[in-house]
Amino acid sequence: MSHTRKLKYHEEKLLKKTNFKHYRRENQKDVENIGRFGLKGKEEYAEYTKLVTQYKHVLKEISDLSDKDPVKQKLLGDLSEKLYNMGVIDLKQPSELVKVNASSFCRRRAVVMLVKKKFAEHLTQAFGLLSHGHVRIGPETISDPALIITRKSEDLLTWVDNSSMKKKVQEYNGVLDDYDLNN
User: Fold this and answer.
1) What is the structure's pLDDT at 1?
2) Hey, how many other C-beta atoms are within 10 angstroms of the C-beta on 49?
3) Distant-in-sequence, close-in-space partners of 99: CB < 8 Å, separation ≥ 6
4) Is residue 88 helix, strand or coil?
5) In angstroms, rounded to a whole number, what is the distance separating the alpha carbons of residues 36 and 44?
6) Residue 56 burial by CB count (10 A; 0-12/13-18/19+): exposed, middle or buried?
7) What pLDDT score was predicted for residue 139?
8) pLDDT one-digit tens code per residue, 123-155
């Protein structure tokens, strides 16, 4: 005979917001990706998975067209071109389109790209650089860690001119100009 006791006040308080009937178990892969790409939480990762779901739906609609249809080939070519330019796929081929997932987009986030391009050693440092306004793309200072860095803008990623980080890097590399020290 199992006898259950009445929950104590603090136990009720802790369990008030937990619904065990509809409790959804977390996917371990999602949790790893949230940490790996410096996402704010499950909601932000869910946005990327929603985007990929919509993308897969469009891809299925295109692939349902007849193989002889020239529109299908043009759409697949345009889509692969677009995703290649974004940096989401590695090759400009329609066969690469099926490999797109939420991680593909997360890899192109500004914080991840700063670590990849060796502007920062880890994601926390990259968040700090962005929040303090040390990084720019072309003439525009960026502060959004979720900004998707395209292949074209990846080459324009640099330090802000009056950034203390830029001076430290130049000093370390031995290329700091005496004129820049006074300005």
Assistant:
1) 57
2) 17
3) 89
4) coil
5) 13
6) middle
7) 92
8) 999 999 999 998 999 999 999 999 999 999 999
The one-letter amino acid at 13? K
Of 89, 110, 108, residue with least CA distance to 157:
110
Q: What is the DSSP letter of 75?
A: H
Q: Return the SS3 of 1.
A: coil
Q: What is the mean pLDDT of the chain?
A: 86
The dihedral formed by the CA atoms of 63, 68, 69 and 74, expressed in degrees to the nearest 10 = 70
Q: Residue 2: pLDDT band by 50, 70, 90 thresholds? A: low
pLDDT band at 23 (very low <50, low <70, confident <90, very high): low
Global confidence as pTM: 0.76
Q: Which two tokens stand for residue 131?
A: 């929040």
> Side chain identity at 136, as an amino acid letter?
R
Tell me which residue of 125, 155, 159 sits closest to 142, measured CA to CA: 159
Q: Where are the alpha helices (DSSP H) in the chain?
A: 9-15, 28-36, 42-63, 70-86, 102-106, 110-116, 123-131, 151-154, 164-173, 178-182
How is the beta sheet containing 157-159 ordered, strand by strand?
140-141, 135-137, 157-159
